[in-house]
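Quick illustration, no need to memorize.
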Amino acid sequence: MAINVVSFAVLCWCLLPGGLLAAEAQRAAAAPGTSRPLPDGVKVERDLSYLGPERQEKLDLYQAVARSPYERSPAVVIIHGGGWVGGDKSAEREVITAVTLVQAGYVCVSIEYWKGEKDRWPRNLADCKNAVRWLRFNADRYRIDPDNIGVIGGSAGGHLAMMLAYTAGNKELNPPSLYPDCSDRVSACVNLYGISNLLTRQGTDASGTPNGQPAPSRLFPEDRGEALEKWKLASPVTHIRQDSPPTLTLHGGRDTTVDRDQSKELDRTLTAAGVESKLIMVPGANHAWPLRTAKFDYTGEVVAFFDRHLKAKP
């Protein structure tokens, strides 16, 4: 059911740091997110099926209430975090991201993906790829520009966003074809404090300074030594090529969950391959913050990045 409402004051309440900045730490065990009233001009269709009737994972589609019937909009896939085992597509961070982008002229889908213990990866990545294909398959229905689709994700969602961006057409990671002839390619990627290399990820001290100790991962049951090639295959930096999509990365300078060197390594690897990369280190920020808080606002940076790469030039 489409929802079109209400109260800017409620949205402002959602932006306060107490509700959002602590959310990621609780998401792995959290119940599904609750619906928040949306600002005037934004509507959402919730729980649309995109993975087949047997799958419980759905997506929410956000768009403007008033759209020209003669124009197609660029689209963005939003991938939530939660350590690959939790999180929710309708959590505050994801809703704020969707509202920000819809108000800037985009259609957005915030997706659920496989989080079960069995075959967690690459099944979760396959779901993300099929979300892009679903957008292209339904481009006429939702007046989407199929040539201009981007992706944004935070934490585990940032990792999946990068994997999606850098492995388009990869035969080894290609999911079953739910949407024949629809590509999984995206044209721009925004990574919010995601893991770029599972093999080099480190622990940190209390200030966020990497300590050189290998960090574990909940993506696989096996550790590094047992499945080195599997860990390598699931590391975004190993898939970067000259034709990889441009990437904007935001990372907290005091992040104690995903060490900040992950984003520095990503930026170096992209730049060395000749891919456009911009890294913004956010002073004082830890992990799992939204695009806008009481202390900072990076919505403009994200919108400008997507506009540059997803909106057709006159």
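Confidence is low (pLDDT under 50) at residues 1-32.
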